Amino acid sequence: MKKDANTPAANEPTAERGSQAIHRALQLLKCFSVERPTVSLTELTRQTGLTMPTVHRMVKALQSSGFLVQDAVTNRYSLGPAVMTLARVMMHRSANEDLVTAAMPHLEELRSITNETVGLHCPTAEARYCVAELVSRQPLRLSTGVGHTYELFIGATGHAILAFSKPETVERVLTRLEHADRRDYPEFEIPTREQIEAELATIRRQGYAMSLGEVVANATAVAAPILSDQGIAVAAVNVTGPADRWTRPLMEQHTSDLIKVARQISARLGYPD
């Protein structure tokens, strides 16, 4: 009988077999990226070169440990909460510490003024993730969760960052948007390139972005960028809440408070106004 190339020999030392399993698990985890946050079992098999039974066995082990989760509808896999826990450890000891330290008093002030959830988000190459969040004290409130990642072409916060990103970043994100498989984003309302370009021009003119149910149904958000001395977004502050309470008129009423806080954080980081 032909031996599976992915199956360790019976007399192979236990330590070596254990090391091989670790390397295979890491191979699987590396298949996920900002560009491809969800992956099917077939895609995992193709990308790693492992057999389907091996991949299936490894995926089940990663699921049981919280490193992967499976969508019950699409059967596709995505990174699980255990990965986010590790990411938080890295983020808290990274350069973002200075940003969070500088921002926290101003985020507290903004939450007190608006009485809604206030968050601080940073860009990666083509996405953004939450580095700090102060959840509303009201019984009904929204929470993104520290470590949660979103595309830059989705939501007010992503648009606020994208509007003040480098031109090559904007073009890269918009090109990926044009080729995005909307089935990979069933929970999001994905805009067209033309819609994004028009909105980015408006955001640059007014200094803030707004979204109404774009990321989460019946939720609204307003966001403003934190800019470097070259006018490039290094982060963004957002305020989110339920649509029936955090209404457009109320968000517009607080845009000056939001922009003021973003500028104060920029100044704390040493960026001139």
At a glance:
The protein is α+β, with helices and mostly antiparallel strands.
How would you describe this structure to a colleague?
This is IclR family transcriptional regulator. Keywords: DNA-binding, Transcription, Transcription regulation. It holds the Pfam family IclR_C. Residues 82-271 form the IclR-ED domain. It comes from Dactylosporangium fulvum. The protein is of the alpha+beta class and 273 residues long. It folds into 2 domains: 14-79, Winged helix-like DNA-binding domain superfamily/Winged helix DNA-binding domain (Arc Repressor Mutant, subunit A), CATH 1.10.10; 86-268, GAF domain (Beta-Lactamase), CATH 3.30.450. The chain is 45% helix and 18% strand. It contains 10 helices and 9 strands. The protein has a 6-stranded antiparallel sheet, with helices on both faces. Strands 1-3-2 form a 3-stranded antiparallel sheet. The longest helix is centred in the middle third of the chain and has 19 residues, at 96-114. It is globular and about 60 Å long.
